[in-house]
Amino acid sequence: MTDFSVEEPTCQELAEFLTDYLEGLLPSSHRLSFDRHIVDCPDCTLYVEQMRETILATGQIRVEEISPAVRDQLLSAFRGWVAGGAYD
User: Fold this and answer.
1) What is the pLDDT of residues 36-63, one digit of tens each?
2) What are the residue boundaries of the structural domains of the chain, listed by start?
3) pTM (global) more than 0.70
4) How far, in Å, CA of 37 to CA of 81, rounded?
5) Among 46, 50, 49, 44, which residue's Cα sits nearest to residue 10?
6) Is 26 left (phi over 0), alpha (psi -120 to 50) or beta?
7) What is the sign, positive or negative, of the torsion defined by CA atoms of 48, 11, 20, 70?
8) Which member of 26, 55, 58, 87 lies 3.0 to 4.6 Å from 30 by CB, making a disulfide possible if both were Cys?
9) HEC profile for the chain?
């Protein structure tokens, strides 16, 4: 992962640090830069809002509601992602 550019974060940095941003874990100076970037970048604004909506929606799904086939597909996808396979 790259260092976060406090002065002018890139869209890539925004994507890499989005989880920390949404969880309130970014230092205040980084958060301010992040917020400024979002205001000036409509694509990143949309991305942040989509992630917020995804978190809201998935937070309402109970494990019992997921079919075994879908659960297996998700686990397989995340195993590949953790191993770096999602970016190959």
Assistant:
1) 999 999 999 999 999 999 888 877 777 7
2) 11-63
3) no
4) 27
5) 44
6) beta
7) positive
8) 26
9) CCCCCCCCCCHHHHHHCHHHHHCCCCCHHHHHHHHHHHHHCHHHHHHHHHHHHHHHHHCCCCHHHCCHHHHHHHHHHHHHHHCCHHHC
**Selection from 16, 21, 19, 10 nearest residue 43 by Cα:** 10
Burial code (b: 16+ CB inside 10 Å, e: under 16) for 11-48 equals: eebbeebbeebeeeebeeebeebbeebbeebeebeebb
> What tokens does 19 get?
């989880």
